Amino acid sequence: MKRIQTLLLFLAAITIMTAQTKKSFTLDDLMWGGQNYWNIQPRSLYTEWWGDRLVKLGPTELVLIADENGIATEETLFTTDDVAPLIQDGTHGLGLNLYYSSFPYADKKLALLQTSKSRFLYDWKEKKITWSQSITPNSSNNEFNAASRSEAYTRDWNLFLRTSDNVEHQISFDGSREIPYGTSVHRDEFGIHKGTFFSPSGRLLAFYRMDQSMVTDYPLVDIEHRVAEAAPEKYPMAGMTSHKVTVGVYDPTKDETTWLQAGDPTDRYFTNVSWSPDEKTIYMIELPRSQKKAELVAYDVESGRRLGVLYTEEHEKYVHPTHDLTFLPWDSTKFIYQSERDGYNHLYLFDTSGKELRQLTSGSFVVLEVLGFNEKTKSVVIQSTESSHIRNNYYSVNVETGKRALLDNGLGVHSAKLSAGGKFLFDRWSSPQVFRQYALRATAPQKKSQPLVLRQDNDPWTEYNVPEISSGSLTAADGKTQLFYRMVKPVDFDPAKKYPAVVYVYGGPGLRNVEEAWNYWARPWEIYMAQKGYLIFVLDNRGSCDRGFEFESCTYKHLGVEEMKDQLVGVEYLKSLPYVDANRLGIHGWSFGGFMTTSLMCTYPDVFKVGVAGGPVIDWKYYEVMYGERYMSTPQENPEGYEQTSLLNKAKNLKGRLQIIFGYNDPTCVPQHTLSFMRACIDADTQPDLFTYPNQGHNMDGHDMVHLHERITRYFEDYLK
């Protein structure tokens, strides 16, 4: 017995010594903007598909690492030393970085490369440049089409097209801040992230024109000048006048634009612009301002004539189309349409007459993405949450039978790129046990071969004191819905002690915080706080994304109400833990999470002692039209909901210490939110604290991110610990 006791004491001493010799993190180690972050992290494996071959990208060389049969190889294709002497754009190859290479032609040994002044095709077999094109300086919204070798871009609010012969075509002439061309519209809602859309051959270009001359200017200020200057942002607030969008199609061979005859664009949204494979038809999904109906409409490309409505979907709350049409590569008369109409985002097969042929996927899971097709097996490759609500995995779906086959290991969170021929996935994935692995996987379900593991990156934090991170689930306030949480315990956790706890929250549409990735997707700041002796708790409440329509839309017309009920379920769970000090609870969140933080502090003032709210929405009538009205309707139609959720009315309830932080030039949650709340608190004689980041937007960039999280940490250190 004495020997056993001696051994146990020895092992305990070794454990203590090991912990003492490990490093502690700084924010510069943990944050992306930190000075030491990239010194700790393993370098990512960057690749590009050359047909069905996989090429590893590097700054100075390109290496073939898997052939067209998925067999590992290692063959250097070329280096910057091979290319630089051939470049004649005046750069002498300076700035040539092969990380930005691509291989647009599967059957040719051509790489698309670029310097700061030109892009060009390099033939590494013949060791010569076969084509080049100037890059326009001071341009933005650039989109290059490899099929036609044309580039669309904007300059001074106008839209231009540079064709493969290096001729610049000016498409618009009346562009201004009031009327921009070729940019994202509808404030990046409805899955919109750009304003130009090449036809399949790249011969024609569809584009957005946005007239926002009638939209109110929000008065942001630029302080970089000797005397600060106005930097207004066109910002259509809920219930107010919105912009008008039209869609044109430009043909460079005729130097003509044809406008789609969609009718009066007032209070309408045009999204998911898609081309037919034969380039004769353009499709758009069109919504009225209420967003309760979506129509798939076809237009004749040559005349712009409206051909008719192919499909209509309606819902009493809202419909939210965010995906383009995906045509079958082996049958140009059929396409895949994505819809939440059965409660989850799934795939439906239609023909071009608008006839629905069948539903391709179904079940209590969400299709997250369509990657493309394996033509040989007549299957579509998708990413979905079928394996678990907190996992992202890849499946092939047979278009004829609907049969699904799992393509990865069914664990963790996967992010993949499909090869040009559809035979393989380059899969980057992680799980709570695997920091990061890269693998090549076949997309043909009948192939039982093991994946080709290209690289596995091990835990980069073995020399540091890392907290215990776990995940679990609770039942929502509705008594039936499963919610997932993440818990980060303090470093050197002792269950006999009582710890302060901080709830980190987002809670709104479009984002989930808990995933079955490395450390359950814990944020770096959570690790830092655990090192300082805090327990961090994160719960994805109803209203967050990727759980189906009912889960998200139960918050309709009263954002924050059901979400707070679920967060309080999490709080009660925390209070039930013997190692959590119920008298030292804090809360922190940004954007929608800033709204949730402020709302919880003011709605349940006796629950949280300290809160830090970043870039918060304070009153939804100050938020933008598209997002705000989808979830809240208009202030005119839903005055009770806006009144109920306005934090201006709750400023008088604030008891705990609340710090609000915002970017002084925030174009998303404009400063009026925070400033109006501060005014309401002054009038109510409550005492929040305020901090701002000049010349920053909705999120902090660069090293300001480190400063921000030190600021947040100090507030909890001062008032919670």
Describe the overall structure.
- The protein is of the alpha+beta class and about 725 residues long.
- The protein is built from 12 helices and 43 strands.
- An 8-stranded mixed sheet has the order 36-37-39-38-40-41-42-43, with helices on both faces. Strands 1-2-3-4 form a 4-stranded antiparallel sheet. A 4-stranded antiparallel sheet has the order 8-9-10-11, with no helix packed on it.
- It is globular.
Topology (SSEs and partners):
Elements: H1 2-21, H2 27-30, H3 37-40, E1 47-50, E2 53-57, E3 61-66, E4 72-79, H4 80-83, E5 110-114, E6 118-123, E7 128-134, E8 140-145, E9 150-155, E10 158-162, E11 168-170, E12 196-198, E13 205-211, E14 217-218, E15 221-222, E16 229-230, E17 233-234, E18 244-251, E19 256-259, E20 268-275, E21 281-288, E22 293-300, E23 306-314, E24 326-328, E25 331-339, E26 346-351, E27 356-359, E28 367-374, E29 379-384, E30 393-398, E31 404-406, E32 413-418, E33 424-431, E34 434-442, E35 452-457, E36 469-475, E37 482-488, E38 499-504, H5 524-531, E39 535-539, H6 549-553, H7 561-576, E40 580-590, H8 592-603, E41 610-614, H9 625-632, H10 639-645, E42 657-663, H11 672-684, E43 689-693, H12 704-719
Parallel strand pairs: 38-39, 38-40, 40-41, 41-42, 42-43
Antiparallel strand pairs: 1-2, 2-3, 3-4, 5-6, 6-7, 8-9, 9-10, 10-11, 12-13, 13-18, 14-17, 15-16, 18-19, 20-21, 21-22, 22-23, 24-25, 25-26, 26-27, 28-29, 29-30, 30-31, 32-33, 33-34, 34-35, 36-37, 37-39
